[in-house]
Design a protein that fits this description.
Chains A, B: Pfam families: Glyco_transf_64. Chains A, B: It is found in: Endoplasmic reticulum membrane. Chains A, B: Belongs to the glycosyltransferase 47 family. 2 copies of one chain form a homodimer. Chain A is of the alpha/beta class and 325 residues long. Chain A is built from 8 helices and 13 strands.
């Protein structure tokens, strides 16, 4: 009888002890300081600040035309979908008759931003300059489907575009020169004036990596049909035409050049081996040809020169603005 | 008789021959192609293009205050007098009671531009911010009397100022920070936000090497007397005050920073050994003090941040804009 009673007491105190330990343990855990996952500056895996939501006025839309480089496109999209201030991505699908990768995209969701695939009926260079109804922001970021521009470059360049909203703000400057005969020719830095001695200048900023206002898409659509025909005939020069549109409208240099810190061309990475139109033999001569045709159509040369180069103060490091002394 | 006649004939034909040679020689010389001394690109001693005359709207006036560094001043003036687009030099003479070097200057004339020495009655830092009647251009280039800025830097910066005429366009960016307590402090690049990770920013461009519009001199004169007293008390902060004036007026960042290619400080070259006010122990602390006093007087902090850094495209060489790839 005494042994049974002892068992009962032991069981009772055992259960009581367990309960007490549990209560104490739970209390202590509740009293521990909370881990704040959004705390900036703490070097822990989950402490990178969450991206902010931005208003429509403070956002931009990527318009990216693609042809024969879907693998490259998808790789780039993993980067671009996460860039701050991005509202939406519009892919201009020039792979006529080929299925868009919608299923693949959705199966790998969710994604930071919505994407729209605009399937085209004809493979045209100027397809990307349509005024897409899905475009909700004022700012367009137009990108080639083989170019990777870093997020800091894009965010900084967007901030510059907001200060020069009627110009093309981008990373690729080019120029035209005017020969004594009055004939125009197209070039880049290698065409700087050897007798100038005062640096270089540019008269165009290419739209393969640039911000511009959506209204220029409307203006492009309203251009004389000869301009559209020229672009269709060459499958080239849509960007030169856009610079003409902007220069004519603003009566100022069409572009503002922002020097990129990290912009990379991945054309060699496409599994199709397709490296883009600019490798064609006639590509550059076409662009000179376009300059003269467009000046003819416009009745004058509206392009103006600029020599402003904008960089981000103190980025990546403050060595970028330190004087010699 | 026959011999005399022969002499006569010989003399006649001799004179005729000399005359003919002279006429032929003169004609040939006149027909030689003219040597154009202004021809660009020909490597001859006298072939550097002559500087152009610029309109008042396309010119600027240097205002340079000087104290105890006349030897250095005169060395700098030989450089500055020859900078393109310069209309006139105004020297604010803070060497009270000391003769201006007018005789020396005139004896070494002629000079490319006129110079005016404004003799002051009291040695004050803010003397340079008077609205001088001799000032005819809209653009003022204010320079410290120990700083040499290259001509390309100045001409480029002037072209930038013409695009941002209501801001201070110059070569020396500085910032204020706002402590959690609401107290302001003054600094430079070493004060960039370590938790930012997104480059640096500036909220002031100092007027010791900068272009600004002449109206800001008028606005400065009209500031409350407390501001003038603050500057007189510290013999400092006139440039901070000017940035407050511009920021308040434009409701934008007061300055645009142009990265200098060749700007040198010659303070160590003054024979007087005087190296300038900024070496005083209290100088930087005074500037933080001024920020707080000015914010108090203004009732708010009007200074705004910018991270735009402007450089001249392709100068000195096109390496300055070439991407990595």
């Amino acid at each position: 009888m005494r042994i049974c009673k002892l068992h009962g007491k032991i069981r009772f105190y055992f259960i009581l002890t367990v309960l007490l330990l549990f209560i104490v343990g739970a209390s202590l855990t509740a009293l521990l300081p909370k881990v704040d996952h959004d705390e900036v500056g703490v070097l822990r895996r989950d402490s990178w600040p969450r991206q902010q939501q931005h208003s429509l006025a403070d956002s931009f839309t990527i318009i990216m035309q693609t042809y024969n480089r879907t693998d490259l496109l998808l790789k780039l999209l993993n980067h671009y979908q996460a860039v701050p201030h991005l509202h939406k991505v519009i892919i201009v699908w020039n792979n006529i008759g080929e299925k868009i990768p919608r299923e693949l995209w959705d199966s790998l969701g969710p994604h930071p931003v919505p994407i729209v695939f605009k399937e085209q009926t004809v493979n045209r260079m100027r397809n990307r300059l349509q005024f897409f109804p899905e475009l909700e922001t004022e700012a367009v970021l137009m990108l080639d489907d083989d170019t990777l521009v870093s997020a800091p470059d894009l965010v900084f360049s967007f901030s510059i575009w907001k200060q020069f909203p009627d110009q093309i703000v981008g990373f690729v400057p080019r120029k035209h020169i005017s020969a004594p005969s009055g004939i125009y020719s197209y070039g880049s830095f290698e065409l700087q004036n050897p007798e100038g001695g005062n640096g270089d200048k540019y008269s165009m900023v290419l739209i393969g990596a640039a911000f511009f206002h959506r209204t220029y898409l409307e203006k492009f659509q309203k251009l004389p049909s000869e301009v559209h025909s020229l672009i269709d005939e060459t499958q080239n020069c849509d960007d030169i035409a856009m610079n003409f549109v902007v220069a004519k409208h603003t009566r100022r240099p069409s572009g503002v050049f922002v020097k990129p810190v990290d912009m990379r061309n991945h054309e060699r990475d496409a599994s199709s081996g397709y490296t883009g139109m600019w490798h064609r033999a006639e590509h550059l001569l076409q662009r000179s040809y376009c300059l003269n045709k467009l000046a003819d159509i416009y009745g004058s040369m509206p392009l103006q020169y600029s020599n402003i180069m904008i960089s981000q103060f103190g980025f990546p490091s403050y060595a970028n603005h330190m004087s010699k002394n």
